[in-house]
Design goal:
about 15% helix; 5 helices; homodimer; 7-stranded mixed β-barrel; Glucose Oxidase, domain 1; two-stranded antiparallel ribbon; alpha/beta
């Protein structure tokens, strides 16, 4: 049994979405200064690193992250590889991909995952993302959870339609998965977002358990 | 299969350890104000709600939270009930408890768990905790992970020895579990702390999966 940790390490060196709050992680109580213990403080937007979008992120009346179903966030998932030259995940790409039938949780590895190996703090705009017709394909094919390997499921210049199509259908979206070390195939997924009350999203430590 | 979510809901209404930073969770980008999306920001100490202590919390040269073993954080765990009149978890209590042999992960439900049903934001000092000799018992009995149901594994007035005994032995400590809804017995535990680089601890969504 192998555990793959597909979560990005959270620090001030992690790229964040343009316009979102910066990540601050600092020790505020310190044994070096004579305290009994070390205590750190985190200040960050909730859409950092490996994280989950709740419907409320792009649907003002949508449910918030503490209400997402753990029955969907955990269970069998398929990791699909797309070739390095795929620039966008559209319906045609998905229709021709070898996704096993009756799989309701899908994680898509693209060339984005290679990006994480560089450990650069720079946000990139030209990441591979899911087009609106790709999102429609996922809804039509009964996908309940979709994971992607950069910080947004949607293209940088056109964030609204892909998010709204997926979130309106109740599909749980995991963004910022590092799939660079994970072979294509089937796994046990455990994606556990922080239980942030009333929030539009939450960082989520996420693992895949292989046989 | 039943999933028990033993994680506390994170909001400004959650009690925090005296002297630790307050919890702030607020929307900083808002569709109500014309934005494309809602985006919240979290600012909090890392020892809030259901969370994991890393050795660095009480041992200045100890390892930090991103290095804790997922092989210990996930796996079979036993939930032990202690009676409402137990005031402290000491070696005698543990020795007389009906803990199955060869269990390396132990979560202890005490009267603390009832506290969470009241949903009070008030921090309490007289919670049930593990005494130093209780901690020595856990080390001697090859426990690798211990979970407790208030915000510290150690008594309020005497935090250092219990923490240091457990953390020096490499035992992973989960604090702030809400076990009020969980029957005594055996479960699959998934405790997934945020991967905070260099941190003394991290909030951790934590679930138990029953048969």
């Amino acid at each position: 049994m192998t555990i793959y940790d597909i979560s990005l390490p959270i620090s001030a060196n992690l790229p964040v979405w343009e316009g979102d709050p910066a990540i601050q992680l600092e020790k505020v109580i310190s044994m070096d200064e004579g305290a009994d213990a070390n205590v750190s403080r985190l200040s960050a937007g909730v859409h950092i690193g490996t994280h989950v979008d709740a419907p409320h992120h792009f649907l003002n009346d949508g449910r918030t992250v503490e209400n997402l179903s753990l029955d969907i966030l955990t269970g069998v998932a398929y990791v699909l590889y797309l070739a390095e030259d795929v620039d966008a995940v559209d319906a045609a790409i998905l229709a021709s991909a070898s996704i096993p039938k009756n799989r309701s949780r899908l994680l898509i590895r693209t060339r984005n995952s290679q990006q994480w190996l560089q450990k650069s703090p720079k946000f990139i705009r030209d990441f591979v993302a899911i087009t609106p017709d790709g999102a429609e394909w996922l809804v039509a094919n009964d996908i309940k959870l979709i994971g992607v390997d950069y910080l947004s499921v949607a293209e940088f210049q056109n964030p609204i339609p892909t998010h709204q199509i997926l979130l309106r259908a109740g599909i749980i979206v995991i963004e910022g998965c590092d799939l660079s070390q994970v072979p294509e195939g089937e796994y046990g997924l455990y994606c556990l977002p922080l239980k942030l009350v009333g929030s539009d999203g939450a960082p989520a430590r996420t693992i895949l358990i292989g046989k």
